Amino acid sequence: MSRLLIEASTPLCLLQDAGRFGVRHLGVTQGGALDWVSMSWANWLLGNALDAPVVEITLGGFTVQAEDYCLLALAGADLGAYVDERAITPGRSFILQKGQRLRFTQPFSGARAYLAAPGGFDAPQVLGSCATVGREELGGLDGLGRALAEGAQLAYSGVGGAMRELSAEQLPKLDSKAPLEVILGAQIGQFGGQSLFDVFNSEWTLDSRADRMGMRLLGTPLQYQGPSLISEGIPLGAIQVPPDGQPIVLLNDRQTIGGYPRLGALTPLALARLAQCLPGEKVRLAPVVQETAHRQQVEYLQRLARN
């Protein structure tokens, strides 16, 4: 077993995997890595299962010291990572010798970095996943939904692993200005015509009121003209519009049901890009048909499998 001692952390540094599935009928949300693409590449660098447990580091402020020889991999945001005093960029596996420190300072590109270890970090499975969801007190190192804290140990018992580096083509494009694609939802036709024009022809600013439950988009208020709704199941990426007309994109730690009208839902690939956006950044939305979104998702998963 290899171990890392956590010397500094924040409430935004969490143990995650792909999340919990098959439990929403119990009122339990999904959880899991917000940028599933970067999580997958971090695991790929070591030859892991793509959904093996990783550390999701948001905005930096995280430091670990190796208590043993450790093989690790890093993907996702550039959070100013250093091994001792040597800078290390995302998209590669690397070695920490006993006593060396890995620290993350502040975001330079993107918001979330993913740290992987051979076989994934050790943690108890709660309802089939170790994904940390603080609100529901599930997952994490102790199974109680706590963030990674100073003084705790990260351990892994996997062996082997690979020394790999992502090519320029493989690296996720965190600075892409391409619109976020939206699969249109059941209530799309009950928004006013001007609102439908504004949704897809305006820039939206990411509000500072954002967490793992959802991200609020600020812009021209949207007008819903339909009847009141009965609460219904909420999928990942759903774009709800509350009475103030400012859309909210619901993320992995969202509630399981809701009664606000929905424009639709972001595609999984669009969600991964949104997870790397910082408050104040501007995004655009673009409609996409379900068949196209499905094909893009399958093609990306096949690309990961081929590599």
Query: What ranges have pLDDT less than 50 throughout 5 or more consecutive residues?
Result: none
User: Total number of helical segments?
Assistant: 4
* Computed structural class: alpha+beta
- Order of H and E elements: EEHEEEEEEEEEEHEEEEEEEHEEH
Provide the spatial order of strands within the biggest beta sheet: 20-13-14-17-16-19-12-21
Question: What is the residue-mean pLDDT, rounded to a whole number?
Answer: 95
Give the DSSP E fraction (strand runs of 2 or more residues): 25-35%
Give the fraction of residues assigned to helices.
10-25%
Radius of gyration: 20 Å
Shape: globular
Tell me the major beta sheet: 8 strands, mixed
What number of domains?
A: 2
By DSSP, the count of extended strands is: 21
Q: Between the first and last Cα atoms, what is the distance in angstroms?
A: 28 Å
Features:
single chain; 307 residues; alpha+beta; Cyclophilin
Explained architecture:
With 307 residues, this protein is α+β, with helices and mostly antiparallel strands. 14% of the residues lie in helices and 31% in strands. The chain has helices at 36-44, 193-201, 268-274, 290-306; strands spanning 2-8, 13-16, 54-58, 62-66, 70-78, 81-83, 86-88, 92-96, 101-104, 109-116, 153-156, 180-184, 204-210, 214-218, 232-233, 238-240, 248-250, 257-258, 262-266, 282-283, 285-288. The strands form four sheets. An eight-stranded mixed β-sheet has the order 20-13-14-17-16-19-12-21. Strands 7-6-9-4-1-11 form a six-stranded antiparallel β-sheet, with no helix packed on it. The chain has a five-stranded antiparallel β-sheet with strand order 2-3-10-5-8. A hairpin with a 3-residue loop joins β13 (204-210) and β14 (214-218).
